[in-house]
From TrEMBL:
Superkingdom field: Bacteria
Protein name as it appears in the record: Metapyrocatechase
The VOC domain, residue ranges: 17-125, 162-277
Transmembrane segments: none
Provenance organism: Verticiella sediminum
Length: 318
C-alpha cells in the first residue's frame, strides 16, 4: 500500500457521508428497547422496520428490519455529491462490480459489491457528516465552594447528537482499504497491520467514517454515536447498565481517532459506542497516516479489551 506524504490537497472525488446502515435482527422489540435505552429516537416504519434518529437531527441514520433469523448486516448507503457520483459510475463499470439494489431499499443511486461481499448504495444526497470538529456540550465550571457533579437522581438521559462512524468485520482488511481508496474515494487515516484500518472522507470528516477489523467473514461490529462530553460517555454507560445492558468495553480513550469511548454490547453480539472528541480531518488537510503497532491500535487507557469484543456473531455466507 502506498503512503501519502504530509501536506495539503484540494477536494477530490469521493464519498462524503455515511447516509444509512441497514441490518436485520430476529424481531424488533429487543432492538427498540436497546436503542431507546441508548438514547436514540426510534420510529416504527411498518410492522417489520425501525428507523433510528438522533435527538434534534432530521436525518435517519439506520434502519433495522425483522426477519425471524439471526442478526445480519444488509447494506450500507453512502452519500456522494452529484459530480463525484458521475465519475464513480465509470470506475464501477470498468471494474464490473455493479449490483442490483437491495430489495428493502428505495432502489435509487448506484449499487455495487465490495470485495468482501457487502452491498453498497452510492446516493446523490446532502452531506450529513460535519464540516468541522464537533463542539463539546457547553457547561459553566462550578465556582469554588459549589458542587460540580449533578445528583444521580437529576441526571437526564444521554441522547447522542449524530452518527460518527461504522466499523465492519472483513476477511481481508487491506483489500477493503484499497477498494475504499480506489472506488469510494476514501482515504486511509491509520491502520495496524492487517488487523484494523480507519478511513475518512476527502470532503472533511471525523478521523473515520468507516473502519474494518479482521474476521473470518464480513459483518457489522459496531456503530458509533457522538455525544458532547466525557461525562456523557460515562453517564451513557451507567444508563445502559441500569437498563440491563452491562456487557461492553470502556470507559476509555482510543489512540487512533483519540476519542473517549464506551461500547455497549447489544442483544445480538455487536456494539453501540458512545464517542466524544474524535479527531477531525478537514477537506484541505492530508492526515499523516501510519501503520501502528498492535499496542497502539486500541486504547491509551481504560479496561482490558474483553475476550468477546472481536467475535463476529453473524453467520458466514458460505
Amino acid at each position: 500500500m502506498t503512503s501519502i506524504a504530509a501536506g495539503c490537497r484540494t477536494e477530490g472525488t469521493g464519498v462524503h457521508s455515511v447516509n444509512r446502515f441497514v441490518f436485520s435482527v430476529p424481531e424488533l422489540s429487543e432492538a427498540q428497547a436497546f436503542y431507546e435505552a441508548f438514547g436514540l429516537e426510534v420510529r416504527r416504519a411498518g410492522e417489520d422496520r425501525l428507523d433510528l434518529y438522533t435527538s434534534g437531527h432530521p436525518h435517519c441514520w439506520a434502519s433495522v428490519h425483522a426477519t425471524g433469523e439471526t442478526k445480519r448486516f444488509e447494506y450500507l448507503s453512502l452519500g456522494v455529491y452529484a459530480d463525484d457520483l458521475a465519475r464513480m459510475r465509470t470506475c464501477i463499470s470498468e471494474r464490473n462490480i455493479g449490483a442490483a439494489p437491495h430489495p428493502w431499499s428505495d432502489g435509487e443511486g448506484l449499487w455495487l459489491r465490495s470485495p468482501d461481499g457487502t452491498l453498497i448504495q452510492l446516493l446523490d444526497s446532502p452531506k450529513v457528516m460535519p464540516d468541522a470538529k464537533s463542539e463539546p456540550t457547553s457547561r459553566l465550571p462550578a465556582a469554588p465552594g459549589q458542587r460540580a457533579a449533578s445528583c444521580r437522581s437529576d441526571v437526564a438521559q444521554v441522547r447522542p447528537r449524530r452518527l460518527s462512524h461504522v466499523l465492519f468485520f472483513s476477511p481481508d482488511v487491506l483489500a477493503m482499504v484499497c477498494f475504499c481508496e480506489e472506488v469510494l474515494g476514501l482515504r486511509l487515516s491509520d491502520r495496524s497491520g492487517d488487523g484494523v484500518a480507519f478511513l475518512h472522507g476527502v470532503h472533511g470528516s471525523d478521523h473515520h467514517l468507516v473502519a474494518f477489523a479482521k474476521s473470518s467473514h464480513a459483518g457489522l461490529h459496531h456503530s458509533s454515536w457522538d455525544v458532547g462530553s466525557i461525562d456523557e460517555v460515562g453517564m451513557g454507560a451507567e444508563q445502559m447498565r441500569q437498563a440491563g445492558y452491562d456487557r461492553g468495553w470502556g470507559v476509555g480513550r482510543h489512540v487512533l481517532g483519540s476519542n473517549y469511548f464506551h461500547y455497549v454490547r447489544d442483544p445480538w453480539g455487536s456494539y453501540a459506542e458512545y464517542s466524544f472528541d474524535i479527531d477531525y480531518i478537514p477537506h484541505d488537510t492530508v492526515w499523516p497516516s501510519a501503520d501502528h503497532p498492535a499496542h497502539d491500535a486500541l486504547h491509551v487507557w481504560g479496561p482490558s479489551v474483553p475476550d468477546e469484543f472481536f467475535i463476529n456473531h453473524e453467520k458466514s455466507p458460505t
